[in-house]
Amino acid sequence: MSTVKEAVEVEVPVGTAYNQWTQFEEFPNFMEGVEEVTQLDDRHNHWTTSIGGVRREFDTEIVDQLADERITWRTTSGDTRQRGTVRFQRVDDTHTRVELVMDVEPSGAAEKAADMLGTIDRRVKGDMRRFKDYVEHRGSESGGWRGRITPG
């Protein structure tokens, strides 16, 4: 399993950054290789990805979520194994640090080779830069979910 870490500072308030991240169905707008995310309920999402010509579908469960602070998830089914946390830290009234830490277990020869070559790490770094551009250029979030999910 590989661990990928990346952080960006976005020029929006912490609430705006957090709210935009909770709009999971908009992930294809800034995540390379993500074709579709369908939010099934407050805790569960279904993902369709196509990376290097390999199409994968999998489900994730949010296991911990606290508004303006963090979202933690894990896969529950499908071809992909991952877990991670995205954290939101207020820098000042108009800036937020967004940090993603993700553990990914590549499946299949293509994914394992991509992991060894650093492709997964570069993709996540690019996704975080694109999130920064996406949220800053919008000017405001497209929605938000302010509920709380606790482990258990």
- Fraction of residues in H or I helices: 10-25%
Question: Mean pLDDT, rounded to whole units?
Answer: 89
Detail the poorly predicted runs: none
Total of helices: 3
- CATH arch. level architecture: 2-Layer Sandwich
Structural class: alpha+beta
Rg of Cα set: 15 Å
CATH fold category name: Alpha-D-Glucose-1,6-Bisphosphate, Chain A, domain 4
What is the rounded distance between the termini? Answer: 24 Å
Order of helices and strands: EHEEEEEEHH
Order of strands, main sheet, comes to: 1-7-6-5-4-3-2
Shape: globular
Largest sheet: 7 strands, antiparallel
β-sheet strand percentage: 35-45%
| Strands, count | 7
What is the C-level CATH assignment?
Alpha Beta
| Name of the CATH homologous superfamily | START domain
